[in-house]
Amino acid sequence: MIRLSTSDPGFEREFTALVNARREADADVARDVRTIVASVRDEGDAALQAFTKKFDHHDLNQTGWRIEKAEWLAAHQSLSAELRDALELAAERIATYHLKQKPEDSDTVDSAGVRLGARWNAIQNAGIYIPGGRAAYPSSVLMNAIPAKVAGVERLVMVTPTPNGEVNPLVLAAAHIAGVDEIWRIGGAQAIAALAYGTGRIGAVDVITGPGNAWVAEAKRQLYGVVGIDMVAGPSEIVVVADGRNDPEWIAADLLSQAEHDPTSQSILFTDDAGFAKAVADAVDLQIGTLATAQVARASWDANGAIIVTANLMEAMPLVDRLAPEHLELACDDPQPLFDRVRHAGSVFLGRLTPEAIGDYVAGPNHVLPTGRRARFASGLSVLDFMKRTSFLQLDQGALAAIGPAAIALAEAEGLPAHAKSVASRLAGDQTETLL
Amino acid sequence: MIRLSTSDPGFEREFTALVNARREADADVARDVRTIVASVRDEGDAALQAFTKKFDHHDLNQTGWRIEKAEWLAAHQSLSAELRDALELAAERIATYHLKQKPEDSDTVDSAGVRLGARWNAIQNAGIYIPGGRAAYPSSVLMNAIPAKVAGVERLVMVTPTPNGEVNPLVLAAAHIAGVDEIWRIGGAQAIAALAYGTGRIGAVDVITGPGNAWVAEAKRQLYGVVGIDMVAGPSEIVVVADGRNDPEWIAADLLSQAEHDPTSQSILFTDDAGFAKAVADAVDLQIGTLATAQVARASWDANGAIIVTANLMEAMPLVDRLAPEHLELACDDPQPLFDRVRHAGSVFLGRLTPEAIGDYVAGPNHVLPTGRRARFASGLSVLDFMKRTSFLQLDQGALAAIGPAAIALAEAEGLPAHAKSVASRLAGDQTETLL
To answer: Which residue positions does the secretion signal occupy (chains A, B) (predicted)?
Structure first.
């Protein structure tokens, strides 16, 4: 953990280093991924079976390729009532929030007589990747599957690795609640390639979303264009802006809730109160030992944590914008003036009573958010990621007369005579009289 | 050009081959691009200067790195009145159409007392790539720059190669009209890398859009994640669905307007009238010889053209959906029933009097559209490509009591104790009484 203060003479240099620090793996997985992708494209199911044996240590012909719906249902029924209710509350709130994202079609005629519009359609087939093992989160299933179903995706395919054949029942239960249509017991770059190209058993999809390790992320990047993808995701991060009137324990828990995800996660506190800064640092040190996730949280906090003291909270805001954090908490009585200054952030949590974890699970907005300063140009996952727009035009003779000549002039200037002729011959109108 | 009929016994096999035919370069440019990108990242302007000397045959220190605004203005003033008016009409109509794409913010409180919302902001810095040489189109400048400016992009940077130092004045004039802020005389993968990473002279941007050759497309793909990009673009295509009551010359011109772009372009006609099919084929053969673009158009038509006879026009529609074409013309008296069956298409041109070329220039919708069957999952360029969304949440004690327990249950089930604690400590409410 580093401690900075905007009043330090070297602050700008040190803060710039913090902004530019790369926490993403430098490992060149691109070559391995290219090999895996090409194998699955060319050999289909045989390649899937071989890679699953190699990486997940089970034989798909024995464990089964698909996880059948009866098994999802059983997983759902075996949940405690508390957990089932929690998942269902989350699903309902996520669906409600995402329903409002559905875009409206347009269809108008302008003053020149040109009919102009746009029509949105759902993606027909979508795939979601859900990691196996430690990071097998039912909340990831809800956050990826529900926007797809709200959009109107007809066939929603989930892939998830089952290392040594072991399935996470919470993930199956969440898939049942979210309305997933198929689940395949595959993971890694090979699962992404199977979704993109299709295999004998698995039908290809049009869009792939969902979190994954470096191989999964690289496979999505390489197959971008063959299919649509959500975003290149990196390690998670939180920035907390807090005054001295917060409970240090609460803020420590918020910082640790990010740190416990992964050693590469990052937690940063901005505060205008040096005493509070120290109190939070002490609270983190105390709390960290009590966590079952202590080892991961400590690695993250030691390597990537930061506490930055500013003259006042507003001074923090341009610095926050430079970090363009995935998650931003504004923990003070009146967060609105600070929020009004935020330009680059994935999701913002306002006030003292809105811990980021609420957004991870049950609030409604998506928890799949841009990381690694990508909030400068990217948004959280939404219904729009599972839809696409078709524009359309319709001209009559009057509209063509109004705007056709300009099209001809531009086509000729660009050296494209057939473009010009396609407009000019209609403007000449020979056929109009005889046929229309 | 191939001729098919849905009544042929081998139709399904031949049509499937047409759908799956890849017209994109197989050349493995990825390695070259990786080298160029790494050089520009590490050596900045020196690498740019060297690559420009090598590929564009001029020395940036002599020709100048930037093209100054005085030169754009001069280019604009030297246009003929007809061309200037045409560009300005196009710019105005494109701006009007794209203004309607601006998304609305939301900010509501739900029945549980949770404040939920989403706020859209413009990308701060955007870059657009405009090819040099033969494919230097002022319409591309308008179609990329205007959505960015409508979105509210503050710094809009254009890069365009000037082979042998030669600039296309139409492109400069269009940049002037569209409100571009900077123009740099660079191109290829090196220009994309410069925009993504920034160099000593050129400030980095957050999003890069615009057409380019295979090197440019691959550089964008490789840098996706470092910056946002629009789409992986491939060769252009048109599908025309026409009954026998169209003028064959008009439809021939429409097919050729796509073919004249590039030898890899594709033009496909569906018609329910075998006599009309033959008449169009004959008209194409006659017209093609009259075009200044004959060589390119003939190469495209010979290699990739197709005429497909169907029993009726409606029978064509599911086949069109399988092609998911960039451009689709529905040339008949009442195109609406056909249009209602279209699910996958970039842009649709309705009726006999709406040639695709109208959409390339002056109608308003964007002409940057998904190619190569990507309309299954992608949309044309829009204002949304230059904006991003920040979601936000605010809870009070009542809202936290309503949804907090479910978050705790899920966090515990996922094995994330600090997540649970960040909610639970606030629910316990110790601080609430003392501080709030």
So the answer is: none
